[in-house]
Design brief:
The complex is a heterodimer of chains A (about 700) and B (about 575).
Chain A lengths: L2 H7 L8 H13 L3 H4 L3 H22 L5 H39 L4 E7 L2 E9 L8 E5 L8 E11 L1 H4 L5 E4 L6 E2 L4 E11 L7 H10 L7 H30 L6 H11 L2 H20 L2 E3 L2 H9 L2 E5 H5 E12 L5 H12 L5 H13 L13 E3 L7 E6 L2 E7 H7 L9 H12 L3 E7 L2 E12 L3 H10 L3 E5 L4 H11 L3 E3 L4 H13 L4 E5 L5 H6 L2 E5 L4 H6 L2 E3 L6 H25 L1 H12 L18 H25 L8 H34 L3
Parallel strand pairs in A: 9-16, 9-18, 16-17, 18-19, 19-20
Antiparallel strand pairs in A: 1-2, 1-3, 3-7, 4-5, 4-6, 4-7, 8-20, 10-15, 11-12, 12-13, 13-14, 14-15
Helix pairs in contact in A: 2-5, 4-5, 4-9, 5-7, 5-10, 5-24, 8-9, 9-23, 9-24, 10-22, 10-24, 11-22, 13-14, 22-25, 23-24, 23-25, 24-25
Chain B lengths: L2 H29 L7 H15 L7 E2 H24 L16 H12 L9 H4 L2 H31 L5 E3 L1 H27 L9 E4 L5 E4 L4 H10 L20 H25 L3 H28 L2 H5 L17 H14 L14 H12 L10 H18 L7 E2 L2 E2 L2 H27 L1 H4 L6 H16 L14 H31 L15 H16 L3 H16 L5
Antiparallel strand pairs in B: 1-2, 3-4, 5-6
The chains are: A alpha+beta (about 700), B mainly alpha (about 575).
C-alpha cells in the first residue's frame, strides 16, 4: 500500500499505549465469562480444559498422588492462553474506544428549537434533543449545536464539523443541492438554518459511528464466520484424535493422564488464530477509521478486499478538476510569444481557474511577468452570455478570447475562411481531449490557446498497480466520448463511461455484477444514491447529501474520492492478515507433535525418543514448553494482528508465494526453535 | 533398491500418463452429453434402460434429488446383495455346494461391495458360489465404481456451471459410466488377462495329483472377468483369498503391470475430465500433479523401507541385498511388491500382491497413512476426485485469504455454508478410524482376534478400520476379522466412510452450482501453478494426515524404532 500516504494521513497511537494496555488487561479478565467466550469456540474449549486441569491440580494438592508442580504449571499456562487471547481482543477494542470517547464528547444533550409551524421560524418550542423525531423541523442558529442528523430545508450557514471529521475549517451547509445534509453533534458558526430531522436520537450517524468504533455493534463478517466454522471443525477433529489416543495408549500399556491429554489438545487446536481472529477484524475496522473512513459494517470492509472494478469520477480523482492552459499555437503570421501576450492581456481580469492558468503560463514561460500589472490601464470586457467572449480594450488594441466559433463570429468571418493551419491546430486539440480557445486582436486571428484537463501526476502508476492486483479501473465523466477517450488513455484507465448520467452508472454496475464482478464507487449527490446502494462498496462523501450517505456502506469523512483505492487496500490487508495467521497457526502443529508425542510415551516406548528431534530435556519439560510456546505466540503476534500484514500491490501469485514462504514455512520452522528455547529456559530454571 | 526397480515404477507412471488425455477427453465428452465413439453401438441399449426404468434422461436433478437417487440405488444394491449371499445355498450356480453366508458376514460383505471397499472377511474360493461372485460381487464392482464416477461428475458440474440448481441426472450418469466406460474397458482388460494366463471358466475346482502323489484341489472360475473390473473399478476384492498374489489372479510381471495400470488409470484420467469440463485443463493437471507427487514420495518410501530389509534377519546371515522378501511373491520381488502396496492403498483399490502385515514397519506405515489421507492420491474411481476437490476447497479456504480476497475456487466463493458441510465431511474419517480403533483396542473380545502382540497388534486393528473407513479394502492380515464385532463395526465404518462423507459433499455441490462464477483476474488465487500444487500437498499432509500421527506413532512408527533396537512382535 502507499505506506507513505497512509502514515501521513493516519494518527495511529502507539501499539503500546500504556493506558490502553492497562485497561485491556482488566478487560481480558472480564472476558473470562464463559457466556462471552462462547462466541469463540476454540478459546471456549481452552477455558473448559483449563478449568479441568485446575481441578486436577487442586486434587493433586489436597489428595496427593499426582504431580501438583506439573499440573499447576500446565493449568496456569492454559489460563494464560485464554487471557492472552482475551487481551488481544481487548487491546484492539481499546484502540477503537479512544476514538469513540472523543466522538462521545460531541454527543451532548443539546436543546433543540422545534418549530411549531415549519414555515415560520419565529415560533418555536424548546425541547430536549432526545425528544426529537424524524420529520420534526427545527431551527439552528449561530452558536447552536445541531442536535440530530437532518436535511437543510431553508437558509445557509457555516458549520464546524471538526467533531466528526477532525477538519477545523468550517463548511457551508445550505438548502437544496448536494450540500444540504447536516450531522448531529456539529456546530453552526454563523447565520441560521432550518433543518428537517432525518434520524431520531440514538440512531444518528454519530451514534452509529461510536457503536462501530467501540466494537459494540460488531457482527462477525461472513468470511469470519466461515473461518470460525473451520476452526471449530478442526477443534472437533483433534478432540477425537486426543480422546481416542487414551484408548490406543491403554492398549500399549500407557495410562495417559488428563493433564497431558489436555496439553496435547490445546497445543493442536488452532488457539493462535482462534485467539487473534476477532482482534484482526476489529483492527481492520479501526485502520479504516484512522484513515477517516467509517464503514457501516465489517462486511463492507471484507467486500472492499474482493472488489475487482473501481468506478472513479474523472474530476477530482483522475484529473485536477479544472482545465488548464498548456500551450499557445499561433495563427499564420504570428509567433507563439505574440499569442501568449494577447492571451495574457485578454485574461488579466479573468478570475476563473482557466483564466488564471493562462496568465500563469504566459507569464512564467514567455517572460511576460512585467505585463501583469498593466491591466488597469485598459478597459476590461467581461464575459457575456450573448457574445460568449471576454477580453480587454487596451489603447487601440481590441483583444478578445473565447470559444472558436464565438471568436470567428466576432471577426465576422466563417470557419471556411479561416486559415488551414488554424483549423489543424483546433482539430488536434479537440482530438486530444483538450479545449481550444481562440484569441483575436483588432479583427485578426492571433492563435489558439490549448486548455487541457490535466491528469494528476503518478495516477497512471497507481492504476498500473491496481491492474497488477487484478482490479479494473473505470473512469466516469460527463465529457463527450472523444475527450473522455483521450483522458482515459492518458490516465491509463481500463474503461470509461462518457456523458455519464446516474442511470448509466447504475446500469454499468448492474451489468458488471451480472458477470460476477464486485464494484466499488464513490459519490456525493442525491442522484448517486441508487448507484451507491447497488455497488458492493459505496463510499459516500461526508460533504454529500443525506441520501448519498444513507445509500453507501462507507462514509469518507475527508470527502476525498481518491481514497477509494486505499479502502480496497485496507480490505485486502484485513483478509491477508487473517489468512496468514491461520496458515501460521496450522503449520505450528507439526513441531508440537514432535515435542509432545515422544514425551507422552517415554515410559513405555523409550525408543520413540528418536522422534524427539529438538532434544528436549525431559518429557515434562517438553510438554510444558509446547504449552508455553502455544500461549506466548498469541502475545507475540498481537502487534502483527493489529498492524496487519504488509500489503504490496502485486499480483495474487506473487502475494501467495511471499506469504506462503513467510507464514507457511515460517509457521513450520518457528515453533521448533521457540519450543527448544523455552525448553532450555524451563530446564535451567528447574520448572520441570 | 535397483535401477530395474525404479524403471518399473517410472514405466507405470508413463503408461498411466499416456492414457490420461484420451480417456479424460472421452469421459468429458460422455458426461457433457456429447456423442462418443460407442454411441451408435450402445445408444439403443442405453435408451432401452431409461425406457424400461421410466427415467427421463433430459430431466436434471438438484443436489438432494441426486443424492437421494444415489442412496436409493445403493440401498437397493445392498439389499439385493445381502439376500443373494444369504440364499446362495438354495440358488443355482453353486457347483461347490457352499452354504449360505452368515448374517454378520453377509452384512459386512454387502456393505463392503456397495461402498467400493471390497474388504473381505472371508476366503472367496471357499465361501462364495459362482453366482454370488458374478451376479453379486462383480455387479457391485461395476455399480459402486459407477456411483463414484457419477458423484464426481456431479461435483465437477457444480464447479463448471453457474447460477443453476441442478447437477445432472444420477441415473443417466451411473448408466453412462457403466455402459460406456467400465464395461468396454473391463472387456478389453479381461481379454488381456486371459492372454497372460488368468483362467476364465464356469467349471468348478479341478482335482490334481501332485508329484509327491498328494491330491490337491485347484479352485477355478470366471477369474479374468472379475479381475478386470476389480482393478478398473478400484474395488480390490479378489476371486481368491490370496488376492493378486495368487498366480491365477496375477500370474506374471506383465499381468502385474496391467493390474497397476488398471488401478490408476480411471482416477488419474478423471482429473483431466474435470479440467476439460471446467474449461481449464491446467486445473485438472494441477490436481494430478499433487496426486503424482505424493504418490511418488509414498512409493519411494515404501520401496526404500522394503529394500532396506530387516536388520535382525541380516544379522542372522540373510543377504541384505534381497531386501525384505517375507510375504512377497518371488515372481514380483521387492520393487513390484512395494509399488503395488503403495498404489493399491493410494487408490482405494485394496487388491494386494504381497502380505501387508509382513511389510517392514515403515513399509506398512505408508499404506496405512495413504488411506488415512482419504484415498485421494488419486483415490478411488470418482471418490478420489471428489475427495481431492474437497482438499482443494480446503486449501483455497485456508491460504486463499493470503492474496487479500475472500476464498474462491474456480470462481466459486467458499462461504460459511460450504465450510459447515466440509467440516461434517472431514470429521467422518477420524471418527470412524480412531473411534472404532480405540474401542477395539480396549475390548478383550476384539483383542482376541489379534495374531501379534505389541505395536504390531495395534497396527492390525488400526489398519482394519482405516481400510474400511477409507473404502480401501486391503487387509493387513494377521487380524481374524470374521467375528461379529469386526464384521459389524468395519461394516459400519465402510458405510460411514462412503455415505456420511458423500452426502455433505453433494450438498456443497448444490450450493456451489447456484453461485455465479467470479471472472478470473490478476487478483485471483491461481490454482493451476506449481505453487498451488505445493500448497495443496502441504494441506493434505498437515490437515489430512496430522490427526493420525499419534496413533501411527504407537503402531508402525514405534515398531520401526523397536525393530532397529532389536525387538520384534
Amino acid at each position: 500500500m502507499s505506506a507513505k500516504a497512509m502514515s501521513a494521513k493516519t494518527h495511529s497511537p502507539s501499539l503500546f499505549d500504556g493506558a490502553v494496555l492497562a485497561r485491556a488487561a482488566w478487560d481480558a479478565l472480564a472476558k473470562l465469562d464463559p457466556r462471552k467466550l462462547l462466541r469463540n469456540p476454540v478459546i471456549f474449549v481452552t477455558e473448559i480444559v483449563a478449568a479441568l486441569v485446575t481441578a486436577i491440580f487442586a486434587r493433586d494438592l489436597t489428595v496427593g498422588g499426582g504431580d501438583p508442580a506439573f499440573s499447576g504449571q500446565i493449568a496456569a499456562w492454559l489460563w494464560f492462553t485464554v487471557l492472552f487471547a482475551n487481551f488481544a481482543e481487548a487491546v484492539a477494542e481499546g484502540r477503537g474506544r479512544a476514538q469513540a470517547d472523543s466522538l462521545k464528547r460531541a454527543r451532548t444533550d443539546a436543546v433543540a428549537k422545534r418549530l411549531l409551524d415549519p414555515g415560520d421560524r419565529s415560533l418555536f418550542e424548546k425541547v430536549s434533543a432526545l425528544a426529537l423525531q424524524a420529520g420534526d423541523v427545527i431551527l439552528v442558529e449561530a452558536g447552536d449545536v445541531i442536535p440530530a442528523d437532518g436535511e437543510v430545508i431553508e437558509g445557509v450557514a457555516s458549520v464546524n464539523e471538526s467533531a466528526i471529521t477532525g477538519e477545523s475549517a468550517p463548511v457551508i451547509r445550505e438548502s437544496g443541492g448536494d450540500r444540504s445534509a447536516v450531522t448531529g453533534g456539529t456546530t453552526v458558526l454563523s447565520d441560521w438554518i432550518v433543518v428537517r430531522i432525518t434520524a431520531a436520537a440514538g440512531s444518528t450517524f454519530l451514534d452509529r459511528m461510536i457503536a462501530l468504533v467501540e466494537g459494540a455493534a460488531r457482527q462477525k463478517t461472513p468470511n469470519e464466520i466461515a473461518l470460525s466454522i473451520l476452526l471449530s471443525g478442526m477443534t472437533l477433529v483433534f478432540l477425537v484424535a486426543v480422546v481416542t489416543l487414551w484408548g490406543l495408549a491403554g492398549y500399549s500399556g500407557t495410562t495417559l493422564s488428563v493433564t497431558v491429554l489436555v496439553a496435547l489438545l490445546v497445543t493442536l487446536i488452532p488457539t493462535t488464530i482462534g485467539g487473534l481472529l476477532s482482534a484482526i477484524g476489529i483492527a481492520g475496522m479501526d485502520r479504516l477509521v484512522r484513515f477517516n473512513v467509517v464503514a457501516t459494517s465489517g462486511r463492507a470492509v471484507e467486500a472492499a478486499g474482493d472488489v475487482d472494478t473501481l468506478l472513479l469520477d474523472k474530476t477530482g480523482t483522475i484529473t485536477f478538476g479544472n482545465r488548464l492552459a498548456t500551450a499557445f499555437i499561433p495563427a499564420p503570421g504570428f509567433t507563439d510569444a505574440q499569442v501568449a501576450e494577447a492571451a495574457l492581456f485578454a485574461s488579466l481580469a479573468d478570475e476563473t481557474p482557466e483564466g488564471r492558468s493562462i496568465v500563469a503560463l504566459a507569464s512564467n514561460h514567455y517572460g511576460l511577468k512585467d505585463l501583469v500589472g498593466r491591466a488597469g490601464a485598459g478597459m476590461v470586457v467581461p464575459f457575456s452570455a450573448r457574445t460568449r467572449l471576454s477580453g480587454i480594450d487596451l489603447g487601440n488594441r481590441v483583444i478578445r478570447k473565447g470559444a472558436v466559433d464565438a471568436v470567428l463570429k466576432h471577426l465576422n468571418t466563417t470557419s471556411a475562411a479561416a486559415p488551414r493551419a488554424f483549423h489543424k491546430a483546433v482539430d488536434e486539440i479537440a482530438r486530444s481531449g483538450g479545449t481550444p480557445l481562440a484569441v483575436a486582436e483588432n479583427g485578426r486571428l492571433v492563435g489558439v490557446i490549448h486548455l487541457k484537463d490535466v491528469v494528476k501526476p503518478a495516477i497512471k502508476e497507481r492504476f498500473d498497480a491496481l491492474r497488477a492486483m487484478g482490479i479494473k479501473t473505470v473512469m466516469v465523466t460527463g465529457d463527450n466520448p472523444v475527450t473522455a477517450a483521450a483522458i482515459a488513455s492518458e490516465a491509463g484507465v481500463d474503461d470509461f463511461i462518457a456523458e455519464a448520467t446516474p442511470e448509466d452508472k447504475l446500469a454499468y454496475i448492474r451489468a458488471e455484477q451480472a458477470k460476477g464482478r464486485l464494484i466499488a464507487m464513490c459519490g456525493d449527490g442525491t442522484n448517486d444514491a441508487p448507484a451507491l446502494a447497488q455497488a458492493d462498496v459505496g463510499v459516500a462523501m461526508q460533504t454529500g447529501t443525506q441520501a448519498a450517505r444513507e445509500a453507501g456502506n462507507m462514509v469518507d469523512l475527508d470527502s476525498d474520492p481518491t481514497k477509494l483505492i486505499e479502502v480496497v487496500e485496507i480490505g485486502k490487508q484485513l483478509l491477508m492478515t487473517r489468512g496468514s495467521l491461520t496458515t501460521f497457526s496450522i503449520a505450528n502443529d507439526v513441531a508440537k507433535y514432535f515435542a509432545i508425542v515422544p514425551a507422552l510415551f517415554a515410559a513405555t516406548y523409550p525408543e520413540l525418543q528418536a522422534l524427539n528431534v529438538m532434544g528436549l530435556a525431559t518429557p515434562q519439560s517438553a510438554i510444558l514448553s509446547a504449552v508455553i510456546f502455544n500461549a506466548l505466540i498469541i502475545v507475540a503476534l498481537i502487534p502483527l494482528a493489529l498492524k496487519g500484514v504488509a500489503y504490496r500491490p502485486v499480483g495474487a501469485a506473487a502475494l501467495l508465494r511471499r506469504n506462503l514462504l513467510v507464514y507457511g514455512l515460517g509457521g513450520f520452522v518457528v515453533p521448533f526453535l521457540g519450543i527448544k528455547l523455552i525448553d532450555l529456559a524451563v530446564a535451567a530454571l528447574g520448572f520441570a | 533398491m535397483t535401477l530395474a526397480g525404479w524403471l518399473q515404477i517410472a514405466c507405470l507412471f508413463l503408461l498411466v500418463l499416456l492414457a490420461v488425455k484420451p480417456l479424460g477427453g472421452y469421459m468429458a465428452r460422455l458426461f457433457s452429453g456429447e456423442r462418443t465413439l460407442l454411441a451408435s453401438l450402445l445408444g439403443p441399449l442405453e435408451r432401452g434402460f431409461y425406457a424400461a426404468a421410466g427415467v427421463d434422461a433430459r430431466k436434471e436433478q438438484g443436489w438432494l434429488a441426486y443424492a437421494l437417487a444415489m442412496l436409493t440405488f445403493n440401498a437397493a444394491g445392498f439389499a439385493f446383495l445381502y439376500a443373494l449371499l444369504r440364499l446362495q445355498d438354495v440358488l443355482p450356480g453353486n457347483p461347490q455346494g457352499f452354504a449360505g453366508v452368515a448374517p454378520d458376514l453377509a452384512f459386512n460383505t454387502a456393505a463392503s461391495f456397495v461402498t467400493n471397499t471390497n474388504w473381505q472377511s472371508y476366503g472367496g474360493e471357499t465361501t462364495m458360489s459362482h453366482l454370488s461372485q458374478m451376479a453379486g460381487l462383480t455387479v457391485q464392482n461395476f455399480l459402486s465404481a459407477a456411483t463414484g464416477m457419477a458423484l464426481a461428475v456431479a461435483l465437477i458440474r457444480a464447479l463448471a456451471r453457474g447460477g443453476v440448481k441442478t447437477l445432472g441426472n444420477f441415473w443417466v450418469d451411473a448408466t453412462r459410466a457403466t455402459l460406456y466406460v467400465l464395461l468396454p474397458l473391463a472387456f478389453l482388460v479381461a481379454l488381456a488377462y486371459v492372454a497372460t494366463g488368468v483362467p476364465q471358466t464356469l467349471a468348478g475346482a479341478v482335482e490334481a495329483t501332485t508329484v509327491e502323489g498328494a491330491r490337491q484341489t485347484i479352485a477355478l472360475g470366471p477369474v479374468a472377468s472379475q479381475e478386470a473390473i476389480k482393478q478398473l473399478g478400484t474395488n480390490g476384492g479378489g476371486f481368491f483369498n490370496a488376492n493378486s498374489a495368487h498366480p491365477f489372479e496375477n500370474p506374471t510381471p506383465l499381468s502385474n503391470l496391467i493390474t497397476l495400470w488398471c488401478i490408476l488409470v480411471l482416477p488419474a484420467a478423471l482429473t483431466d475430465t474435470f479440467g476439460r469440463m471446467v474449461g481449464d485443463r491446467r486445473q485438472g493437471a494441477a490436481l494430478l500433479a499433487a496426486m503424482a507427487l505424493l504418490l511418488a514420495a509414498a512409493i519411494g518410501a515404501t520401496y526404500w523401507a522394503e529394500a532396506s530389509g530387516n536388520p535382525l534377519l541380516t544379522a542372522l546371515g540373510l543377504d541384505p541385498a534381497a531386501g525384505n522378501m517375507e510375504g512377497k511373491e518371488v515372481r514380483f520381488g521387492v520393487a513390484a511388491s512395494a509399488l503395488f502396496a503403495a498404489v493399491t492403498t493410494a487408490v482405494s483399490c485394496g487388491a494386494v500382491n504381497a502380505m501387508h502385515a509382513s511389510l517392514t514397519p515403515i513399509g506398512g506405515l505408508v499404506p496405512m497413512f495413504l488411506m488415512q489421507l482419504g484415498e485421494i492420491l488419486p483415490g478411488g474411481v470418482g471418490s478420489g476426485l471428489y475427495g481431492m476437490l474437497v482438499m482443494a476447497i480446503l486449501s483455497v479456504f485456508v491460504a486463499g485469504l493470503m492474496v487479500g480476497r475472500t476464498p474462491e475456487y474456480l470462481g466459486k466463493k467458499i462461504g460459511a455454508k460450504e465450510m459447515k458441510l466440509l467440516v461434517l465431511a472431514i470429521l467422518v474419517l477420524p471418527l470412524a478410524i480412531l473411534g472404532f480403533s480405540a474401542v477395539a483396542a480396549m475390548l478383550p473380545s476384539a483383542l482376541a482376534s489379534l495374531a501379534n502382540a505389541g505395536p504390531h497388534g495395534l497396527s492390525e486393528i488400526l489398519y482394519a478400520y482405516t481400510s474400511g473407513a477409507a473404502n480401501n479394502g486391503s487387509a493387513f492380515a494377521g487380524l481374524s476379522a470374521n467375528t461379529l464385532w469386526y464384521n459389524t463395526t468395519i461394516g459400519l465404518a465402510m458405510l460411514m466412510g462412503r455415505f456420511a462423507y458423500v452426502v455433505p459433499v453433494m450438498a456443497i455441490a448444490g450450493s456451489l452450482a447456484a453461485k455465479t462464477r467470479v471472472p478470473v483476474s490478476a487478483g485471483t488465487l491461481p490454482t493451476h501453478t506449481p505453487l498451488f500444487v505445493a500448497l495443496l500437498s502441504g494441506v493434505i499432509l498437515v490437515l489430512g494426515g496430522l490427526q493420525f500421527f499419534p496413533a501411527l506413532a504407537l503402531g508402525p512408527l514405534v515398531e520401526h524404532f523397536l525393530m532397529l533396537a532389536g525387538k520384534l512382535f
